[in-house]
Amino acid sequence: MTATTPEPTHSSGSVDQADRTVSTPGLPLPLVFDEPPRRSKPPRHLADLDTAARREAVTRAGMPAFRANQVGHHYFARLVDDPDQMTDLPAALREPLAEALLPTLMTPVTVRSADGGTTRKTLWRLHDGTLVECVLMRYPDRVTMCVSSQAGCGMACPFCATGQGGLQRNLSTAEIVEQVVAGARSLQRGEVPGGPGRVSNVVFMGMGEPLANYAAVVGALRRLVEPSPSGLGMSARGITVSTVGLVPRIQQLADEGLPVTLALSLHAPDDELRDELVPVNTRWKVTEAVGAAWEYASRTGRRVSIEYALIKDVNDQGWRADLLADVLLSYGDWGWVHVNLIPLNPTPGSRWTASRREVEREFVRRLQARRISTTVRDTRGREIDGACGQLAATGG
Ligand code: SF4
With a 6 A CB cut-off, is 162 part of the ligand 1 pocket? Predict the structure, then answer.
């Protein structure tokens, strides 16, 4: 894929600093932490608001505050946003309440299915024309929504389709939540084979670096776990936030009181290679990122997942498996960590390919020999470009 030149960015603090280097085709993309300036914001939506703000929005629109909870119940518990179906509300108030709290945030452009219809990738158009994708994956025992937190991504990982397109903008809290609600609706309506069901898991592994859009992502986490009428009432244990290792934000997340699972995309145990594969490593090194993940596990009691995409002849050598074990075990072996190996999803025109099967098996064997819990992720959705690192919102 060709490199692109992102819009100029601004900086505003320790994490929120952008590398102002302008990319040149063929050279690595710059790291971009802040979204480019934009003309319009997404409309304010119920899912952007906490309880107090919801009530205030309703009273400002000239209606009694308790109506906010009724609308919240329709949206989060019944998954309804059509005012005609809110029959407990006075007919004259339905439209004004929906206008105040439930503007249309996104419209579907395409839905592509795989795995007999149990994997569905939806391409959405947002209010300003921005395109984002999410993927629903139904398994026998759970339904997982993989959501996007940004349109594009500024982290510039060279093997990732999303990263090669640069960062367009952050998504709002409601734009993130609405991806989950839309998936929940399609399950409720029986549109996914297997009968009506519920979303049990959410993984922030679609487009974007979630911790680079921190406030909106934490807002979305609160909406996902709070019970109706404030949220979807999901278990935090079913939610995974993935990061390439924005260390100050990992520390901040541990303070939020939201025991979600943290997934650190490590992809290399040594700085020399990780500087290339995960360019944010030039800012926070392997030991800093793994140390922050260990601290997260210690403080939240949640086991951290180390994500490691196995890339043929790049990071899949046996000695790197041993080094990965050394790095992780240097923090103790109390079960704080799990390694999730990901067969790389090939992206068109990319020189990066998946490791050979026997190499993958040897990598697993070496980690397990050191008693590190290790699994190999299945590659669901690969045929519809819906697997990790393949969401590029190309409309395909
Ligand atoms: S791998 Fe994740 S963090 Fe890296 S560029 Fe892709 S979406 Fe961004």
Answer: yes
Instruction: Measure 48 CA to ligand 1 centroid, in angstroms.
Output: 25
Ligand 1, closest atom to CA 161? 6
Run means of pLDDT, 10 residues per run, the chain, 396 residues: 29 35 60 90 96 94 94 97 93 93 96 93 96 94 95 91 90 98 96 94 94 98 97 97 97 96 96 96 98 97 95 96 98 94 80 92 98 87 52 46
User: Which numbered atom of ligand 1 lies nearest the CA of 207?
Assistant: 7
The class (CATH top level) of 46-101 is mainly alpha
CATH 1.10.150.530 range(s) for the chain read 46-101
Q: What is the pLDDT of residue 162?
A: 85
- Output the six-digit token pair for 98: 């929906």
* Distance from residue 278's CA to the centre of ligand 1 (Å): 8
Active site residues: 133, 388
244 lines ligand 1 (CB under 6 A): yes
* Burial grade of 173 (CB within 10 A; 0-12, 13-18, 19 or more): buried
Structure tokens given for 143: 């339904």
pTM, to two decimals: 0.90
- Fold of domain 106-384: TIM Barrel (3.20.20)
CATH 3.20.20.70 in the chain is located at 106-384
| Burial letters 120-145, b for 16+ CB under 10 A, else e | bbbbbbbbeebbbbbbbbbeeeebbb
